[in-house]
Amino acid sequence: MRFEKLNEDKIRITLSREDLIKKDIDFHTFMSNSIESQDLFFDMLEEAEKEIGFTTKDYLIRLEALAMAGGDFVLTVTRTLPDKIKNNRKKVHIKRKKVNSEATQMIYSFASFEDYCSFLTFFEQNQFSPTHLAQRVLLYEYHHLYYLVLCQINLGYPQLKKLFSSITEFATFENHSEVFASKLLESGQLVMKHNAIRTGIKHFLKQNNA
After folding, report:
1. What are the domain boundaries of the chain?
2. Sheet harboring 73-80: ordered strands across?
């Protein structure tokens, strides 16, 4: 875990894939705003105070989170002193800029179709099921990138946490908003529309292995 002081009221906390595994967390579940994720965040703030002297007592706190393509997890923490302090309890506002655990739509971009096939290989080798992951799984090409769109994600899908942690080895999380999905629908080229993961494994991996 690495702490960087960006300015007097803002720091960056970077967790490596090893840190995530050690703490048994991932980007998707951290943004759930659960009691466990809040406790973990406060532990990080205490460590930040020890490491770089960044205190948050009596401050309002805003958190922005970003999952990097290489698997790192970056948190940007900004503190603001309120005009009137009602109590000494920390108040946390998590800016859900990227992901929350109840998001039923997620979009990942792959730099090339080969990267997408590498993800499919990983998916198959780890025996994930493409059937119950999401109600719709689409693949678009847009501006020379390939976008995997997961619609109406099954939050009860087995190994969902492991899948979302691993996919960032092959792709970059983009956005789960309806606006970006609509942009892909209007301007992107639909490559696969009938469960893009299952179709890709069936027609591309099998073909390459033949």
Report:
1. 2-95, 105-209
2. 2-7, 10-15, 73-80, 60-67, 91-95
